[in-house]
Amino acid sequence: MKAKRIIGLSLAISSLLSLSSCSFLNDLLTIDFYGPTTTDDEDVLTSYEDLGNYYIDLDPITSKCNNKLINNSIYADAVPSVGDVNLLVIPVEFSDYTFEYAGYSSDEVLYDDLNRVYNGTEEDTGYFTSVSDFYKNSSYGKLNLSFEIAPKYELGMTAKQLKNLDLKSDVDKSTYVLEKAVDDYKNKYGNDKVKQFDNDSDGLIDGVMLIYSCHNTGNSEYSTFAKNVGDSGDLYWAYCYWDNENGQEKFYYAKNNQPGHKSNSELIESPIPCTYFWCSYDFIYSYSSCEIGGNVDSHTLDHEFGHMLGLDDYYSYDDSTTYGNEYSRAGYADMMEGNIYDHDAYSKAVLGWINPYVVTGDCTISIRSSALYGDCIILANNYNGTVYDEYIMLELFTPEGMNKNDVLYPYSSNIPTCFTNPGVKIFHIDSRLVNSKTGKEGTYSFINKQSIDLNYAYKFAYSNSKSRDALSTDYDLIKLIHKDKSTGNLNSTSFFGDNSSYYGKNKHLFTKNDEFSVSSYKSLFKNNGKLDNNEELNYTVTILQANSSGAVIEFKQNQ
Predict the structure, then answer these.
(1) Are residues 402 and 547 located together in one domain of the fold?
(2) Is residue 226 domain-resident?
(3) Domain containing 160: what range?
């Protein structure tokens, strides 16, 4: 019998330079299993501090249920989201479109720019900040990234030769480069050097960033280059992906001690790559003030690193021709939707960076800026104690921290400044999990306890793209509730168009004296005033105060 495999993945490509395209883990189809099934029947318990009709959830993710385990169940991986994490950056050079051809006067200039965009301070980058600095601030110091910039790897192929390589898909071609580049690094520096990038000692290199030397063909500015290499953004773009064969080696063959394959101890002694990022050098200079040897821009790198941590895209991949008018789910001003601003509170909770307040009855809760302190509130029926549930989430937005730069300096001419004033964001979150014994379409069902059994394939029940949902509905993973009850319809077949209603505005934020309830905003809920789980949420939420100093929010059960 066969091990479970990941097949049929496709890349959806946007033509906007400011937004990178990413592959998903949602298209996982044929999976077969054998061997004994082990199930941990012990319920996952949350630790909390009771404050009277609400409590602080001290453990919104657990060792038994987290993004890494969800990815592992489908032979992928995720970068650890807390702690000190070492990662590897490898510049990849083609024989025709070299880094010198791109405009680098020397390899030292290339290495310096990569070091500044990955490891530098805002002063070093001259614009925005580096990937490591962004995540240190976004995580409130819980995630400390260190990127080693390796000497460039000379692929020995032209860009067109790689495009024409006889492999099944374009991602297979970037995965081919990944394995060649990592093998070259191992040969030069040895396994002991490579083991520093396996931060959790599981036999997989936690993350490899491949920065290649030719243009990205998703940008119309490079149409001549795209024609020359025969690519329109499928290969030469920016995306996060996974070496699924290596994932299978770790999570199936090593796990089951299959003859002819590496054991777990062998993998730990010589880790292999799985999670990786494939990106043209030119994304580092997307902002107008950036240039080789000058200012550098990390926005695309920050967004893609979110995928390496296990986060999904929050924009929709569906076009209006098939699925009707599409709209912004997170107000666009969100790192996983528009490549701008900070991560939202939901993303931070999923990554274990914040500890939500959870409402259990009538109460009044004070919260501070989510950009600076990570306060947020969960309002739910029968909350299961983890972020993998359905609930209303509230956070206080302020134009500070990792929001500040994008408020002051709009990322591009066709993207307006979004939220600029303090206000409460109210999200409808449905991040319930489903699993399947076969992994085939139509075989997923909700899990009844919050623990991952790696003999099953796990997915989020819903994404923000109908075509990618595990279950056949039109519910969303995350959706910002607009105070004015608008959805920001987008009449376009592309991800984002020139439609100002698509972007988040200050009028969408809740401020002093505003009220919210699911029943009064039933037009924004698919079940006519009920949650996706078909339950009523009988609370009225009143914003008593909302400014840069903090928000005071009252919760009252309806009679």
Answers:
(1) yes
(2) yes
(3) 85-308
List 366's β-bridge partners, or say none.
552
Alpha carbon separation from 243 to 150, 239, 402 (Å, rounded):
20, 13, 31
Q: Which is nearest to 20 in space by CA: 288, 208, 292, 216?
A: 216
Separation between Cα atoms, residue 243 and residue 274, nearest integer Å: 4
Cα 255 to Cα 102: distance, rounded to the nearest angstrom: 44
482, 426 contact by CB (below 8 A): no
Q: How many Å apart are CA 437 and CA 553, to the nearest integer?
A: 43
Examine the domain organization and report whether 382 and 331 are in the same domain.
Answer: yes
Lowest mean pLDDT among 1-5, 186-190, 382-386: 1-5
Give the chain's mean pLDDT. 88
pLDDT value of position 27: 40
Question: 274 with 373, same domain?
Answer: no
One DSSP character per residue, 208-220 reads: EEEEESSPPTTSG
Tokens of 447: 């899990």
Residue 152 scores a pLDDT above 90: yes
Which of 196-205, 227-236, 384-393, 466-475 is the least confident region? 466-475
Total domain count, the chain: 2
Q: Going by DSSP bridges, is the β-strand pair 326-327/489-490 parallel, antiparallel, or unpaired?
A: antiparallel
Residue 323's pLDDT band, with cuts at 50, 70 and 90, is low
Last residue of a domain, one of 274, 308, 342: 308
Q: Does the pLDDT of residue 329 top 80, yes or no?
A: yes
- Residue 423, domain member (yes or no): yes
pLDDT at 413: 67
Whether residues 276 and 362 fall in one domain:
no
Number of H helices and E strands in the chain, helices first, is 15, 24
